[in-house]
Amino acid sequence: MAASAIPPIRLGLIGTGLAVEKLHWPALRGLTDRYEVTAFTDPSAEQRRRFTGYSGIDPALATADRAALLAREDVDAVLISVPIPHLYEVARDALAAGKDVLCEKPAGVDAEQAAGFLALAAGHPDRTFVVGENIFFRDDLRYARALLDGGAIGRLHLMAWRHAGRMVPREGRFSGTPWRQRPQYRGGVHLDAGVHHIAQIRLLCGEIARVHGLVQAANSTIDAPSDLVLNLVFSGGAIGNYTASYPEIPVPPEPNEMRLYGTEGVLVLVETESERRVTRCSPDATTHTTVFRGIDNGYRAQLVDFADAVRFGARPVGSVAQSVANAMVVQRAFDSAERAAALALDPVPGAGPVPLWRPRGSAGLFDGLPGQRSSSTASFAA
Q1: Collapsing DSSP states into helix, strand and coil, what is residue 366?
Q2: Going from the N-terminus, what domains does the chain have, and what CATH number goes with each?
Q3: What is the pLDDT of residue 382?
Q4: How many angstroms separate the CA atoms of 43 and 244, rounded?
Q5: CA proximity to 218, closest of 192, 193, 251, 179
Q6: Rounded Cα–Cα distance for residues 306 and 146 (Å)
Q7: Strand 129-131 vs strand 100-103: parallel, antiparallel, or unpaired?
Q8: Which has the closest alpha carbon to 52: 83, 86, 25?
Q9: What is the DSSP string of 176-240?
Q10: Would you give the distance in Å from CA 1 to the centre of its chain?
Q11: Which of 73, 201, 329, 374 is least surrounded, with the fewest CB atoms within 10 Å of its CB?
C-alpha cells in the first residue's frame, strides 16, 4: 500500500497544556496525512476550552479522563503531555491499553524511574514507545552533525557551551507553571530543560563516559538548584564543559553559543528566537555560515519519525533508551555534585550513539521539511 493510501493514525491527546499549544499542535496541524485527532482529555476545563478554540477540534471529542480515552477503539496512539511527575504512570497505562505512545520528556523523575521507563519499553515490544526529544530532529543540529560525520573539523577534541538566562515565573510561559517552580523531580530545571542540552551534546559529540558536576541555588523563585557546571569526558576521547545558569535577576545578553574544537577547524552554533546559525571556521581563517530560518525546532520531524515507526515498523530515533541516556547524564551530574567526585557514566542498554535522522526514503537532510536556509563565506583573519 502506498504511503498516501495509508489511513492517518488516530491520535488521542492526554493533556492539552502549553506543550501541546506551543510545540505539538503547530506541527500536528500540518500533518493531517499522518494524524487525525480523535479524542483528547485534560483535567482542566479551561485548558480543554482553550485547546478547542485554537485548534478547531470538535469539543465533542473530549473525554472525561484518560481511562475513558484509553478505552476508546478509535484511538490508535496517544501523545502524553502531562506534568513530569505523572509521565510514567500515564505511559504505563497507555501501553497496558494497547496504544502506541509518544510521551513528553524526561524519561523519569530520577534514576529509579528512568530504569522503570526502560522496563516499560522492554515489556511492550509490540508497541511503538517513544519519549520525545525534538533536539534530535532540529535541522541546524542535524546539519552540524553531518558536517562532523564528514570530518569537516577533523577530530573533535573539545566542547565548550555556556547557557545562561533569567528565569522567573511568567504567565503563559513554561516558567509560570507551578509544578516547575516547586519541582517534584530530581534536577529541577536541569532535568526539565537541561535534557535538551544534553541531547544536543550527545548528538554532536557522542557518548559521555565520565562526568564531574557542581550545582548551587541562586534563584529564590524555583525550589531547586539554578546553576550547573559539568565537565565531561566523551567515549571518543574529547573533553568538554557545559555550564547552565538560570538566575532570577536580569543578566546581560549572553551569546549562549556552543563551540566544537577539532584538529582541522572549529564549529560554532548560535541560536536566537528568529534563527539558527552553524559556522564552520577553517584553519585559513575562512568561515562558512549556514543560517536556518522558519524551522520548528524539530517537532514536525519528530512526529514524522513516530508515524513512520507506527506505520512501517521503522526504528524511531527518539527511543526510550536515548531519552533515558539524556536524563541519566543529569542524574549522574547531581550524584557527582553530592559526592564531590568525578563519576563514570554507565552505558544505557539499547541507546548507543544517537542516529542521524533523515526523512524516510530520502538521502537528503531536509527533503519535505519546512524552513529556509542560506549560506555565506567570510574571514576572521586580522
Answers
A1: coil
A2: 3-135+300-317 (3.40.50.720), 139-296+370-379 (3.30.360.10)
A3: 60
A4: 33
A5: 251
A6: 22
A7: parallel
A8: 25
A9: G-HHHHS-SSTTTHHHHTHHHHHHHHHHHH--EEEEEEEEE---TTSSS--EEEEEEEETTS-EE
A10: 32
A11: 73
Close Cβ partners of 372 (under 8 Å, ≥ 6 residues apart): 292, 293, 294
Instruction: State the Cα–Cα distance between residues 346 and 368, nearest whole angstrom.
Output: 38
Residue 166 burial by Cβ neighbours in a 10 Å radius (0-12, 13-18, 19+):
middle
Return the residue matching grid coordinates 484511538.
75
> Could you tell me which residues come within 8 angstroms of residue 314 by beta carbon, excluding any fewer than 6 positions away?
305, 308, 360
List the grid coordinates of 212. Answer: 564531574
Three cell numbers, residue 83? 506534568
State the pLDDT at residue 171.
Answer: 86
Q: Cell 491520535 appears where?
A: 11
What per-residue confidence (pLDDT) applies to 1? 45
Q: What angle do CA 224, 102, 178 make, to 5 degrees?
A: 30
Which pLDDT score, from 0 to 100, does residue 363 have?
Answer: 84
pTM across the whole model: 0.96
Residues of the chain with pLDDT below 50 are 1-2
Sequence-distant (≥ 6) Cβ neighbours of residue 267 within 8 angstroms: 144, 147, 148, 152, 153, 259, 260, 278, 279, 280, 281
Spell out where the chain has E strands.
9-14, 35-41, 77-80, 100-103, 129-131, 156-164, 208-216, 227-234, 239-245, 258-262, 265-271, 275-281, 286-293, 343-344, 372-379
Q: Name every residue whose Cβ is closer than 8 Å to that of residue 185 and which is 6 or more positions away in sequence.
A: 84, 85, 106, 109, 110, 191, 192
**Single-letter code of the amino acid located at 58:** D
Name, in order, each residue with C-beta under 8 angstroms of 158's C-beta and a sequence gap of 6 or more. 238, 239, 240, 260, 261
Tell me the longest C-alpha to C-alpha distance in the chain.
67
Numbers of helices and strands, H then E, in the chain: 12, 15
The total of other beta-carbon atoms located within 10 Å of residue 31's CB is 16
What's the CA gap between 359 and 369, in Å, rounded? Answer: 8
Handedness of CA 283, 285, 288, 293 (dihedral sign): positive
Backbone phi, psi, residue 82, to 5°: -120, 170
